[in-house]
Amino acid sequence: xxxxxxxxxxxxxxxxxxxxxVGGTALQSCxxxxxxxxxxxxGVSSDAASAVYVAPGKHDELYSFLSGGFNGQVxxxxxxxxxxxxxxPVFTQHGENGYGYSEESKAMLQTSHGFVPWDDLHHPKLSxxxxxxxxxxxxxxxxxxxxxARIDLKTFETVEIMEIPNxxxxxxxxxxxxxxxxxxxxxxxxxPLDMKGGTGDVSLDKYEEEFRGSISFxxxxxxxxxxxxxxxxxxxxFDYDLANGGKGPSEDWVFFTTYNSEKSGTLKEVGAxxxxxxxxxxxxxxxxxxxAKEGKAREMPANYYHNKxxxxxxxxxxxxKKSVRYLLPEDCPGMMYLLPAPKSPHGIDVDPSGxxxxxxxxxxxxxxxxxxxxxxEAIKNKAFDGEKNGIPVLxxxxxxxxxxxxxxxxxxxxxxxGKGNAYTSMFVSSEVVKWKLNExxxxxxxxxxxxVGHLMIPGGDTKExxxxxxxxxxxxxxxRYLPTGPELAHSAQLIDISGEKMKMLLxxxxxxxxxxxxxxxxxxxxxxxxxxxxxxxxxxxxxxxxEADVSVKREGKNVIRVKMTAxxxxxxxxxxxxxxxxxxxxxxxxNLEQDWxxxxxxxxxxxxxxxxxxxxxxxxxxxxxPKKAGVFPxxxxxxxxxxxxxxxxxxxxxxxxxNVPITFSxxxxxxxxxxxxxxx
Amino acid sequence: xxxxxxxxxxxxxxxxxxxxxxxxWKIYLxxxxxxxxxxxxxxxxKLGGSSESVLQNFNILNHYIGMExxxxxxxxxxxxxxxxxxxxxxxxxxxxxxxxxxxxxxxxGLLMLGGAVGILDFYxxxxxxxTNLDPMAAIKVPGMTYIPPLLGSKVLLNFEALSLPAWxxxxxxxxxxxxxxxxxxxxxxxxxxxxxxxxxxxx
Lengths: 680, 203
Fold this sequence. Notes:
Radius of gyration of chain B: 22 Å
Radius of gyration of chain A: 29 Å
Distance between the termini of chain B: 15 Å
CATH superfamily of the largest domain in chain A: YVTN repeat-like/Quinoprotein amine dehydrogenase
Structural class of chain B: alpha+beta
Order of helices and strands of chain B: HHEEEHHHEEHH
CATH architecture of the largest domain in chain A: 7 Propeller
Number of helices of chain B: 7
Helix content of chain A: under 10%
Number of domains of chain B: 1
Mean pLDDT of chain B: 89
Low-confidence stretches of chain B: 197-203
Strand content of chain A: 35-45%
Largest sheet of chain A: 11 strands, mixed
Shape of chain A: globular
Helix content of chain B: 55-70%
Oligomer: heterodimer
Strand order of the largest sheet of chain B: 3-2-1-5-4
Distance between the termini of chain A: 86 Å
Number of domains of chain A: 2
Mean pLDDT of chain A: 92
Number of strands of chain A: 46
CATH class of the largest domain in chain A: Mainly Beta
Number of strands of chain B: 5
Shape of chain B: elongated
Structural class of chain A: mainly beta
């Protein structure tokens, strides 16, 4: 081929150029496939390696919390290194530690639909004080079976899950107000509410007349963080997509993007894309709370679960709530307005000053920026353009500050650096675009690989962003990493935004599908991290606090309760006899350790659930129903010490009705193990 | 004896009170797995450490080599030592009030003796724990004993043990040195005061 090019070169240089282009294309297609991406190095800063290098033994500057999307979990990464620190199970059973399997944690996944051990977790939001992240809790949503969960950042464990009634597709969720007064959750999929706690058996042709959305206001206990569904607002049956709270002058308000103002119930990709403008819904949450308090709220029957972990026993308990209060916008003047927004808007983001509301219309060619002060003015002057279900619609021009022209294709989300710049993710043109908030001018672009969804600047949705880094969460990975078969890890990219120009620093693979993320400086979280639970404070009803107190008892006909302990490097008891086929055996294992990073695991052969991982000072329960007679080993699953392998025992199972008495022991009396006596 | 000397003697006696405010001795353990270190604090009346559960953690580590578990209840000393210290404090104050040279020397000598016995007793405990090992222990290193150092550092398998007196010991040190100072000052002052006030000398 090359000699051919040479021949052509002699004859006609212009033809050679053409050939070179064709040849180049041919060569490129040869190198595609499992090779490295052609765009691998684009925009990478020359000092990228040192900018993200966190030396062994050193800590990252920030914690980041990436939602796991369809894995129902939250992943915790250190920034700038991109090191994975932890996976926190929230809506999904987690065999790794027994979450959702153990007797203590099962109740967390209970809903009015029964046990739902999976969900689609989209948006993590950090709790706030004075409009800034305070490092106390992380709120997350479950999209599929509407739920909002709270993770305690002292323990990095899910401690509360609240089911949301009258909702479907809890996507527009959870948005905390500036002092955690409320966490707000909206419906993406409107449904025909039967006003009795469920959805009606309604013809799907009746979308327009029967379907409604809801916005839930979950009150948060200022001290403990406990959630309580205070009231809901029943809203027109649009799709409520995303929300964000105001700040400063707009802090009483929360804004929701909506699409499907057409109220289409089928083939929404077409049906919901007909109107040139949908709406940004503005809700004055303070006024709503006032209306609810002052008796404007009506009450309807409901049926939803509220699951909470007791901090002293670590046992989750479910409460079933039977009613919910609701407000109707038409009863509550001044509470809700609609702002026309270009076609099917997605992200709504309020800048740190609280003056600008940026709406990213995924199908729009420009990014409209609304002005809060103009909105106030328009409300005062009643600059309305009709109304929708009793909710005044404001005139587009009367609330618009301006539009960012030709920002890129497919704008989705915007965050802010606190220095007057906004950064918008462009799904279709696969880039992050930096633009000036005041001038509405694009000043920089950074290609990202590929098709960025959300982006996140630590604190970029709060009053005071930490404008040093930006994380782009990309939906498509393709050739970014070594191939791993058809399914690939999603890709996040870390971008330095401290200077004029954005600088690409790092790619890191993520777990499942991060939709959104939050990040916080480590000093707000790390000092409060729990090292272990105090054994003295353990109030589990089946905890045993010293080896002398362990027991194995038959309760009723078929229940065996084993109250046992684990400490380096033995379990007490480790020999158990007298269990019969078909018994339900509860292993209540208390970890007697009182030191940092000494969990013990517990697993028994043939158990139809998972292991359970027990933190020092805590008690966890594994249930086991032996199906056949014989001897079954159990053991510690978390490498705990030099004699971890020896940390094992046996349980003998005899046929049903056998007369083998219950006995249990560990070692012999003479053996020198601290505190151990034969328990026979 | 002059007032300031008497006062100094009382200070000497009261400085023993430091024993109730701070540990007497600290044993530091360091190992690769314990970057934060483990500290065992020996008080005049109790055992403590860098954390509430330090004794349990010491015992867990020690049980692999067959060392007997350490419990505060095993040491009768922790029961009666406080009384001895209080005895020294009361008698020290009395000696200060009385102001007799011989009593000062006697008190000082007795305290030195007490301190020496205490250190000897401590050493014997270390030897007992370090050598009296369970023959069934999981880890047995032929010929190895695990006597922690009385003073200074020593490597014991994966642990580096460092043993040092702590602020409480300063109480004993001050008790001894201040009372000796009072006695020395008294000796120097004696001939002078005799010359100036012969009447008193006669009396």
